[in-house]
Amino acid sequence: TNGVITIDPGYKNTGSCESAVTFLDGEKGILRYRGYAIEELAEKADFLETAYALIFGNLPTKVELEKFHSDIKSHSLVDDDVRKILEAFPKTAHPMGVLSSLTSALTAFNPSSVDINSREEMYSAIVRILAKFPVLVGWTMRKKKGLHLNYGKNSLGYVENIMYMMFKQPNEDFEVNPIIKNALDKLLILHADHEQNCSTSTVRIVGSSHAGLFASLSAGISALWGPLHGGANQAVLEMLEAIKEDGGDTKKYMAKAKDKNDPFRLMGFGHRVYKNFDPRAKIIKKAADEVLNDLGVNDPILEIAKGLEQEALSDPYFVDRKLYPNVDFYSGIIYRAMGIPTDMFTVMFALGRLPGWIAQWKEMRLRKEPIGRPRQIYTGENYREFVDLEKR
Ligand code: SDX
């Protein structure tokens, strides 16, 4: 501090806003969306209901939910020129880069998503993105797999339709697997919001310049991409695969994670706020067991993950630093069992986080928050004369 400005790297001790959307208690491992506990939402609600509650403040009545879903369905077509933009990407493009670009491109095809000044305009932009984003997710995955693209089917439920766009093959009928549908509902609910995390803070600060909803979401997707944030779920599977290739030698990776000279971290462990356990990880770990059992998948990766967790929970380095499995540690194991490619895991995180980003952006705009513009403490050169090129 210089007496006027206090520097707080990573904003570890800085609050950026007041919010009524999500409550979490890092010590007690509590997470609630609009006061509803995630444990109850994961058990009793579906993803669209949860999205409605986050965005509009209360769980919807049957009539409200049906109207919400039909409004979303009326915008489920994505302009064919967006598909042409997708075709232009190389197969090697990372899905998060594709998704962020296509989401930003939607702004060009939906100019009304920029200048949003009334609740009606806000509602219109919200149902549009909730309708079109799952199409982009499905297209991104199908492109990655070299498969033809699916458009949505309005006769299906919201999550069923997501599965349709991701998995429907042209030569087969589409059957909703209830085990996968329930697991996907649960995973998306558990990822739906998490107060002022890195990507949500990005959505808020970009939105604070009134850049528009889709542009703010595109920025949030880029922030989520990083391996320290949402990219961790992909990094966890890559780490577990490496350990498996290495003969399952978890001790070697534990040593690497503790070695100060080694940048390697145990991906899927640790959290800025949760210092005892991540309540989402507990639910997801249980779901991973159930899904793999129900699908009859015997994935050695799951056993390695459990072994790693056991070792870390009894290792002083991790216990002293309060490093426990977070939301990303087990989620990838379920996505893998569903046949989702590893580099699509963070796209699934973005799909889950979409309602939370929307809810937080909406709150920021309705509260007319000022444009985000932090200060700094200058540590550079004092004034010095300009020197002509010949004399340098
Ligand atoms: C998400 O914020 C959110 O809410 C995010 C999220 C959401 O829903 O939006 O919950 C989703 O991003 C979950 C986190 C996913 N990331 C990872 O799993 C990557 C691995 N974890 C870390 O990089 C780390 O734990 C963070 C980024 C999650 C938190 O970092 P902090 O709070 O800035 O903590 P830090 O980097 O200052 O670490 C504190 C100490 C350090 O050791 P010392 O310097 O004190 O000796 O703990 C060590 C770190 O080296 N440490 C780890 C570690 N995480 C922290 N050591 C080994 N392995 C790890 N995973």
TrEMBL record:
Active-site residues annotated for this sequence: H271, D328
Task: Check the record and name the InterPro entries matching this protein.
Answer: Citrate_synth-like_lrg_a-sub (IPR016142), Citrate_synth-like_sm_a-sub (IPR016143), Citrate_synthase (IPR002020), Citrate_synthase_AS (IPR019810), Citrate_synthase_bac-typ (IPR024176), Citrate_synthase_sf (IPR036969), Citrate_synthase_typ-I (IPR010953)
Query: Which pathway does it serve?
Result: Carbohydrate metabolism; tricarboxylic acid cycle; isocitrate from oxaloacetate: step 1/2
The record's Pfam families line, in alphabetical order, gives:
Citrate_synt
Give the family from UniProt: Belongs to the citrate synthase family.
Q: What is the lineage of its organism?
A: Bacteria, Pseudomonadati, Bacteroidota, Flavobacteriia, Flavobacteriales
Q: Does the keyword Transferase apply?
A: yes
Which cellular components does GO assign to this protein?
A: cytoplasm
What is the recorded name of this protein? Answer: Citrate synthase
Q: Which reactions is this enzyme annotated as catalysing?
A: oxaloacetate + acetyl-CoA + H2O = citrate + CoA + H(+)
Cell inner membrane keyword on record: no
Listed GO molecular functions? citrate synthase activity
Origin organism is Polaribacter aquimarinus
Sorted alphabetically, which keywords does the UniProt record give?
A: Acyltransferase, Transferase, Tricarboxylic acid cycle
- On the tree of life, the source organism's domain of life is Bacteria
**Any one GO biological process:** tricarboxylic acid cycle
